[in-house]
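Entry:
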Amino acid sequence: MEDKDIITIYNNSFGISFKWKRTESKDLNKVQLVFENTGFYLNHNQLISFLKNITDALKRPSICNDCKNNSSCKSILLETPVAQVSFAMSYKELNDMYDLVNGTLFQLGLNNILQKNTINKY
């Protein structure tokens, strides 16, 4: 999805990540993550930290016996790079969030490699 104001980085059924095109009010080194009714504007280090928090949350034992099979059970607490904000999520949402953040970081890394190779070619 290309829009006149954004450059899509990655998307899945849970959300989308993108960078804002050049504007005076936006930091071009940050990525906008949008999922459900929430948006986060994070830099690269915050994305890495967020992915670690997601991975840690996925490793924690389930609170109830059926958490992994029940999409309405939002028993997993996910810490974010913003100290004042946490999410209560289902196991499926947490996996979808993992895919969104991991896919975003992968695509950013790939784009960075491709840009360096293009610059070095000429």
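The CA atoms of residues 29 and 64 lie 40 Å apart.
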